[in-house]
Specification:
Number of strands of chain A: 34
CATH superfamily of the largest domain in chain A: FAD/NAD(P)-binding domain
Strand order of the largest sheet of chain A: 10-7-6-18-29
Number of domains of chain B: 3
CATH topology of the largest domain in chain A: FAD/NAD(P)-binding domain
Radius of gyration of chain A: 31 Å
Distance between the termini of chain B: 57 Å
Structural class of chain B: alpha/beta
Oligomer: heterodimer
Helix content of chain B: 25-40%
Number of domains of chain A: 5
Strand content of chain A: 15-25%
Bound molecules: flavin-adenine dinucleotide, iron/sulfur cluster
Strand order of the largest sheet of chain B: 2-1-3-5-9
CATH architecture of the largest domain in chain B: 3-Layer(aba) Sandwich
Chain lengths: ~675, ~325
């Protein structure tokens, strides 16, 4: 009622508004008639204060920015609206352009006619209309803006790194070496990630343990690194520069301060368990175990599900034999709260479950192996001491088939290429040849060996005599049809180079199963307030120009958590994320958007709807006066309470109710109404 | 002051139930003050008057017009424009004029649907399927009835309004206070608030006047008042009764919650609120105590008629104003 935002009577516009419509090359201009939008704004929004409207090929270019600056100076603009891409991309650019020309940067509004219009529509006419509506909303909003000053807050010098694979280790070491504290949180008992399971690494075939272990040890001993293994982050509060992180340190049932890592407990533990994690199901561990000899830290954990004492109440072998009395069955999960300024997520990947391609027989045919199983089989510290043998543990295969792209580049599973499987399969071919002299077939769709020294490695494997069959394997079966197939596994494939169906009997099949996002990637992303792609890979701020940053300030991502990649790229990303964080820390402080909520006390009736909503605990209720107030120092401007207050008593700077309603009225083109709709036309 | 120099008073009834007129008469002996201080020049309910008499008045002739009712047909719209021209102070009186009120709920349907329901449903006794005609050739000449507009509008969507008096209907003591205020102002003893203000009501919400105890809220289910035995001292919303008090302007004295019934919002949006229903929806949603989508669905099933709950008085004044069928006529 009284809140009629667009008055019926014509009024003198209060502001002088400049409107700039960007073509973005053909990105916008291909779908939106930008010249028409510009003309329209100039004519139809003049009564709302638009004094100049221009269109330009690239508004973000220096020439485009100069256009704005020139108009601010010459035409005395008091507000600027740029219709271009999304605020994520260029809000800062245009704000800075305004600031350079002497206009408060917060008097500039960027409306998206690319992400919200040209990229999502094809009908040029409708898209042009929508662009006008969005622009009109921007004009109504901008005239309700107020000049603001950014808030400066100090950056906490500590960093949280989540995931202790090679990506996380690299990032942690770079930051720690630069002299700043790091919390490295790993959910398994040891750091190392997938790389710790491998024997050799392509393309150089250096031993994984030899290059990884020193890094793990450095991370474990570094005075600036607090290593928290067997731990998980459960909650993140705060914002860039000042995150408060809650970490659950799961009970190990071993007192770390007493344990010397001698391993007697593991030796004496009577309970053997198949090791699904580190040994990929090929070997055993104990219920009280150190996952592998080079584990960092060296402390064991007790797996309560399998521990005899936890199941039956008797045993305590580990406790009896522990020379330092470090076993503690009563240990409880601990929750730690740490302050950090930045966070790097390096949570890696999961392996595609080969059982899902049932025609390849994994889980049904004993001698079909997954890639990780083969890594363990070929590892000199693995269950067979590096002997490549069949599931019976003794027989050396004479013929081996390696199938590429299992679960990758397949519309039934994952469309993407897992990037590492070609090289990994070539590595396997080489190892099989070298250690067994077997005949090796690689079944591939395309060979992708694009990184440094990769194609040379491919040539080497070719020269070693590995046979390559180009074709997608149809089936792996033990149903013999011809003499010579009995007792073998037969690979049925269309050899597309010769153009015929082939049945190739082998003794062993290795599946190059692809890489998949962590199964809990979405939940993890939610804890940290970032997003994942539909597949579940963490999304970077910009795939080309900002590959380790995310849309959430202060949260970085590195390694396979963002998508499949090899160790060199993983390490490069770990280092890049560390460099970005170090840059932030060096600045000492950060400018934050001055967006804060406040309560207009005379409108607040103390209904208490907002009282328990604030994620930053900024809201207090005053029982004596029956009103609510917000602590500006704690408020982060998330807007939760602004939306919730039924009385409209809470308002947010830069997102005031007036601005938002004004923008909606503008979107609905109510600002064009010379006469009201409906009865007005009567 | 001689009698014919007294300030002029008018009241008009557009698309409304008539309750506003009764509420004015209900102010008791204050009505005598109106008569003593004003010259009533146009008030169809109370005295005989013709539109042409109003047309004949000079512009700005009427000092104070209380306009109740929304704009449902062409006649309502024409009278709104006419009375705007003729009045110095035009007051949007009551919920229908200010927010569309119950007639505004027809904005969910197209004209055709409304007429079909009124003249063509099973319960209607209309064997010859007679429908209203806008014009009719009678022996005396062509007769017209005003056109039924596509949707209900509020008075201020048609003409600028000076003040709003909310309520369905406005409370009599509030009307009395406004009458006093205007009389005082005319005598130079008081000042009128700035144009566009809401008068005869409070600046906060019904909760402000409600004596029930309040705490932080966590709603696990919505119930209808008859399903529970409500705690007489505890906030109704906290008991799961969808009380609209938190978003509704105060002024009524929190009558309903004090009598044990939830506020249904007849005093309209609170001072800071533009779209009443949207405000309440976000507010209720904020305190639903569940994370699981299915559980949330179940809780929301406790609000069987969302438009009636959130927009009962306010649909025509909401940001969207009407559903698509009413806008497009389809
Ligand atoms: C069979 C196979 C062979 C390969 N061989 C080679 C090779 O020879 N050369 C090469 O360059 N690349 C190879 N790769 C690729 C290589 O494995 C990856 O590039 C590399 O391991 C990625 O490291 P990462 O740190 O990103 O992830 P990971 O190694 O997956 O490490 C992630 C770590 O984060 C931890 N974590 C996950 N979620 C959480 C959480 N929520 N909280 C705390 N911690 C968490 C995990 O426990 C893990 O320790 C191979 C891959 C496979 C599958
Ligand atoms: S906007 Fe409201 S909910 Fe959000 S941080 Fe500020 S006070 Fe808390
Ligand atoms: S929701 Fe609004 S009215 Fe209710 S207590 Fe909070 S600030 Fe006050």
């Amino acid at each position: 009622m009284s809140n009629r935002f667009i008055p019926l009577e014509p009024m003198q516009p209060r502001e002088r508004i400049g409107v700039y419509v960007c073509h973005c090359g053909s990105n916008i201009a291909g779908t939106v008639d930008v010249a028409e939008v510009r003309d329209w704004a100039e004519k139809r929004l003049a009564h709302r204060g638009v004094v100049v409207a221009r269109d330009y090929k690239f508004m973000c270019s220096s020439l485009g920015q100069e256009l704005i600056a020139k108009d601010i100076k010459e035409q005395g603009l008091t507000r600027v609206v740029v219709a271009a891409c999304s605020p994520h991309l260029h809000e800062q650019t245009f704000r800075k352009a305004c600031q350079m020309a002497g206009l408060n940067p917060y008097l500039c509004e960027l409306v998206s006619i690319r992400e919200q219009v040209s990229w999502v529509h094809t009908d040029k006419h409708a898209a042009t209309d929508k662009a006008k509506a969005i622009l009109s909303g921007g004009v109504e909003r901008v005239m309700r803006h107020t000049p603001l000053e950014p808030l400066h807050v100090p950056i906490h010098p500590a960093t949280l790194v989540v995931g202790g694979g090679i990506a996380g280790i690299q990032a942690a070491l770079e930051i720690a070496d630069a002299g700043f504290p790091v919390y490295l949180v790993e959910r398994e008992p040891s750091i190392g990630g997938h790389m710790a399971q491998f024997d050799k690494t392509f393309p150089t075939l250096d031993c994984a343990a030899c290059i990884l272990t020193p890094r793990m040890v450095s991370a474990g001993n570094h005075p600036n690194i607090t290593l928290l293994t067997w731990s998980e982050v459960t909650r993140v509060d705060g914002y860039v520069g000042n995150f408060t992180v809650t970490i659950r340190k799961k009970a190990r049932y071993v007192k770390e301060e007493l344990c010397t890592g001698c391993g007697v407990c593991q030796e004496k533990c009577p309970k053997r368990v198949v090791d699904e994690q580190y040994e990929a199901g090929l070997g055993f561990r104990k219920a009280c175990y150190i996952p592998f000899p080079q584990a960092v830290p060296k402390y064991p954990v007790i797996d309560t599900e399998n521990c005899v004492f936890f199941a039956k109440g008797t045993c305590k072998a580990c406790q009896k034999f522990c020379p330092t009395n470090a076993i503690d069955y009563d240990q409880k999960d601990e929750y730690l709260s740490v302050q950090v300024g930045n966070i790097i997520l390096a949570t890696g990947y999961d392996l595609f479950d080969a059982r899902r391609v049932s025609q390849y027989g994994y889980g049904r045919l004993a001698n079909v192996f997954t890639s990780l199983e083969f890594e363990r089989l070929s590892n000199s510290a693995g269950p067979t001491n590096g002997n490549i043998v069949l599931r019976d543990g003794v027989t050396t295969p004479k013929t081996v088939g390696i199938i590429h792209c299992v679960g990758s580049r397949d519309r039934n599973f994952n469309n993407y290429c897992s990037a590492i499987c070609c090289m990994q399969s070539l590595k396997f071919a080489h190892l099989v040849k070298e250690r067994t002299g077997a005949t090796v077939y690689n079944f591939y769709i395309d060979i992708r060996t694009t990184a440094k020294a990769y194609d040379e490695f491919y040539q080497r494997v070719l020269e070693e005599g590995t046979l390559f069959v180009r074709g997608k394997v149809a089936e792996v079966t033990d149903a013999a049809r011809k003499p010579g197939e009995e007792g073998k596994i037969i690979i049925q494939v269309e050899d597309t180079l010769v153009g015929k169906q082939r049945r190739i009997p082998v003794d062993m099949v290795i599946l190059a199963n692809g890489l998949e996002p962590r199964r809990d990637a979405k939940e993890v992303a939610k804890i940290f307030g970032i997003s994942c792609s539909a597949d579940g890979w963490l999304i970077e701020k910009h795939p080309k120009l900002d590959p380790v940053a995310t849309m959430t300030e202060g949260i970085y991502i590195a390694g396979c958590a963002t998508g499949p990649k090899d160790i060199p790229s993983t390490v490069a990303q770990g280092a890049a994320a560390a460099a970005s964080v170090l840059g932030r820390i060096q600045q000492g402080e950060i400018a934050l958007e001055p967006v804060r909520a406040s309560v207009l006390e005379e409108r607040c009736s103390g209904c208490r709807i907002c009282n328990n909503l604030c994620p930053f605990n900024a809201i207090t209720f005053h029982e004596d006066r029956m009103v609510t107030s917000i602590n500006a120092a704690l408020c982060q401007g998330c807007g939760t309470c602004v939306a919730a207050c039924p009385a409209g008593a809470i308002t947010g700077t830069a997102f005031s109710n007036e601005q938002i309603i004004g923008q909606i009225e503008g979107l609905l083109m109510r600002n064009l109404e010379t006469a009201p709709v409906g009865a007005g036309q009567a | 002051m001689s009698a014919n120099e007294k300030p002029k008073f008018a009241m008009y009834w557009a698309a409304a139930c008539g309750g506003c007129e009764i509420a004015v008469l209900n102010i008791g002996e204050k009505i005598l003050d109106v008569d003593a201080n004003f010259d009533v020049v146009f008030w169809p309910v109370a005295m005989d008057a013709k539109y042409k008499d109003v047309e004949a008045m000079p512009d700005g002739y009427i000092t104070l017009t209380l306009f109740n009712g929304g704009i449902r047909n062409k006649e309502n719209a024409e009278m709104a424009r006419l009375l705007r021209r003729k009045s110095k102070i035009l007051v949007s009186f009551g919920s229908c004029a200010s927010e569309g009120c119950i007639p505004g709920l027809a904005n969910l349907s197209s004209r055709q649907e409304i007429l079909d329901t009124a003249y063509g449903t099973l319960t209607t006794d209309n064997p010859d399927n007679i429908r209203p005609q806008y014009s009719y050739a009678a022996p005396e000449g062509e007769l017209h009835i005003p056109e039924f507009l596509p949707f209900v509008q509020t008075l201020d969507q048609i003409v600028p309004v000076d003040y709003y008096i909310p309520g369905c209907p406005p409370e009599s003591h509030q009307i009395g206070a406004v009458v006093d205020l205007v009389i005082q102002a005319l005598q130079g003893k008081a000042q009128l608030p700035p144009p566009g203000s809401v008068i005869g009501a409070g600046g906060s919400t019904v909760c402000d006047d409600c004596p029930r105890k309040r705490h932080e809220k966590k709603i696990k289910e919505f119930v209808r008042i008859q399903q529970i035995k409500p705690d007489p001292d505890l906030c109704l919303l906290e008991q799961g009764v969808p009380c609209n008090g938190p978003a509704t302007r105060n002024g009524c004295g929190a009558l309903c919650p004090q009598a044990g019934a939830q506020c249904i919002g007849c005093y309209g949006p609170a001072e800071g609120v533009t779209d009443y229903g949207a405000r309440l929806i976000t507010a209720f949603a904020s305190v639903i105590d569940a994370d699981d989508p299915q559980e949330i669905e179940r809780i929301l099933d406790g609000l069987p008629d969302p438009v009636g709950q959130f927009y009962r008085f306010n649909l025509a004044a909401s940001l969207l104003r009407a559903a698509k069928p009413a806008f497009t006529g389809k």
